[in-house]
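User: Sequence in, structure out. Go.
Assistant: Echoing your sequence, followed by the structure tokens.
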Amino acid sequence: MPYTLDPFRKNHAPSFEKLFQPAQDSMADMPPLEARGYRPLQMNFEDHLRALVYFHLEEHTSAQHLLQVLKEDDFARDHIAPKDGIGKSSFSEATNTRGLEQFAYVFANLQNQATHILPQNYPELGNLVAIDGSLIDAVLSMYWADYRKGAKKAKGHFGFDLNRGIPRKIFLTDGNGAERPFVSQILLSDETGVLDRGYQCHKCFDLWQEENKFFACRIKASTKKACIEAHEVDPDSIVFYDAIVLLGTPGINQTKKPLRLVGYEVNGVKYWIATNRYDLSAEQIALVYKLRWEIEKFFAWWKRHLRVYHLIARSRYGLMVQILSGLITYLLLAIFCHAQYREKVSIKRVRQLRIQIQNEARCIDNLDPETWDVKEHMNSQSIAKT
């Protein structure tokens, strides 16, 4: 059954609803979330998603903080929370046991929307996907999150669209989960994975070429290189090496398939990039790897400003729900900032949105529900002040 938006919410919380609308559109053909047994759901999927988007948007720091706001804040109680409210146990049950399929569905749908809406910054370089892992601090009771003695961590394995600046895939493991196997799962055949030195594996280089997967991976400077064909480089360029090579020690770990190796130097640091992209210039290969830094900036911004790693769940299932809700919030912000300002996501615009929502909330108590209009009221308030 398609989800329909409560008219009261739409008319009385226009800024939040404008942000949330793409997620609303994504739920049109979503598999329904059904109650188990005879007890009805205390919180449907839309309520759950709205609450978690609000959690990230407002930088709440715990589930207890969110639930207190949903109960005591007039705006959150009337426009975010379920109609009859939600208790701690019901919220925990919803997060840890149901809705993961629906969260994944909305994330994939939103990612597809954003891909078609947002402009490409470097179309001449093709579809670039940075792949990296991010550790998530866990607590000792999260027994599944193995890392080392006395410490628990989970790890998210992310694919990040470098051309559009948005996340595109996520896998979750314990903190010791290997990263290289996820390259094949994240990349599509027309995409180039941009990888740091932790992904260097000569068997994987051969495998990815067999799978027709493109990659640009930084390798250790000490890696043995057997040159097959050297290419001329411009002496005035940052590039000092460009050749077709075999990597590794013969008979031990040497690649079976030749690949391209580009060496360049920036600020006294030498970079060696192994790739199977032969259509780009050596300077473009250097740019491709430089763009990998965008995923690091995304992790830092996402963690700091949306509080995505403040745990509200301790099960693997619940943590995946939490991470997906954080990714959904970022995608909503990316679509919103582009539609409103033709800009990338920034804390300036997020703060502006938060203030706008707060201002609308202050207006609600003073208006007739039958004739409520935020823009008209705000304009009248401005005129009254002058």
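User: And one key feature?
Assistant: Residues 1-5, 368-386 have pLDDT under 50 and may be disordered.
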